[in-house]
TrEMBL record, chain A:
It comes from Algibacter marinivivus. Coiled coil: none annotated. Residues 2-238 form the ABC transporter domain. GO terms for molecular function: ATP binding; ATP hydrolysis activity. This is ABC transporter ATP-binding protein. InterPro entries: AAA+_ATPase, ABC_transporter-like_ATP-bd, P-loop_NTPase.
Amino acid sequence: MIEVNNLHKSFGDVEVLKGISTSFDKGKTNLIIGQSGSGKTVFLKCLLGLFEYEEGTISYDGKIFSQLTEDEKRNIRAEIGMVFQGSALFDSMTIAENVMFPLQMFTKQSKSEMEDRVDFVLKRVNLPEAHNKMPSEASGGMQKRVAIARAIVNNPKYLFCDEPNSGLDPKTAIVIDNLIQEITDEYQITTVINSHDMNSVMEIGEKIVFLRHGLKAWEGSNKTIFKTDNEVVTDFVYSSNLFKKVRKMYIEENE
Amino acid sequence: MKQLILKDIDDLIIGSLGIVAFISFFVGGVVTIQTALNIDNPLIPKYLVGFATRQSIILEFAPTFMSIIMAGKVGSFITSSIGTMRVTEQIDALEVMGINSLNYLVFPKFISMMLYPFVISIAMFLGILGGMAACVYGGFSTLEDYIVGIQNDFETFHVVYAFIKTFVFAFVLATIPSFHGFYMKGGALEVGKASTTSFVWTSVVIIILNYFLTQMLLS
């Protein structure tokens, strides 16, 4: 479980995060949503320790990150898997080498043990024969799956995904969503996803945090988001006619 | 780390040998031709062509001007490869994993550039060889005169001076381009701009250091 308390982050005079408090539950897919410029990416980068923040605390299973020693921080980081928006695969390595990289950095496994683990996770993301391809030879959907494989190869306790569906066709996006949710359930990971994709919100948003102007404007789930009266949330989530109709049908069915 | 160092040796050192050999051989030839054509006094001995070629190649051409060329070849490669990693979030990926990305990316390049004097010694050898070919086949002097010239009044310290400069320039070639790549901001266009800026600054620093090192070591 990840708990965030009163998080403030500024860039110069511009305050991007204005005191966010929330929590992300273990074994659930937690979504951070909001308009562009609402502070989602900054929030995610604060959670990952890529940005220093001025005020507030972030704790991983009760351990407040900013109060940890460098070794303890390194141990926490070894338990984090991250899927970047552009996949961020290392260009100079094959797909198998990319996936093996966290094992080489954080474990003392033998080469054959690492190869077995890489085989296992590549099969898990449905890429059993992609070992020797270079990232540039893989499609966008394949690259995302490799990024997921790299993120989970070291059995992380926390999985972060920055817009995992961006640039993917709707069918592949659903495959990626389902894969993330299955992995979250299977390994009881605390998964935090930064997303714009309303399909993801409806499908896998077991917990949803809505950010607006650097503040938490709403918190709920894909069940409660249909019923909310919060105008800011409904304006954003049901901005398309399709989702307005879906919501109307859902409310009618449940009345 | 060992694999990264070997890869960088392949990219930065081995990968530069072809262009270094090509440029050195032909520039050595041009230096010889220019020197020979400018000697029209019959009292000046013919072996001076070899002597002048050797001095030009060892003292300046191989260590300094080859380093300027390497600022374009190796420096741009370092800046663009690290810059692309920055733009495509590969550096963020390293940092999320708790890896010291600066050390991970720059240290292997720094170590592999310690083999740079090997490249420069090849440039020296091929420059003098190119001069010899141009001199003999161009009919400017005999092979014996040229060989006498390159052996004449040889000072070992000149080679030491050249290699001191080479080590300093190797440090510059590894660090300035890495700095520009690592701390760049923006997208693909900025990677190109960072490569250009890195080439300009690396060249400027090499020229200035060349001046001060020459002043300190030779005067």
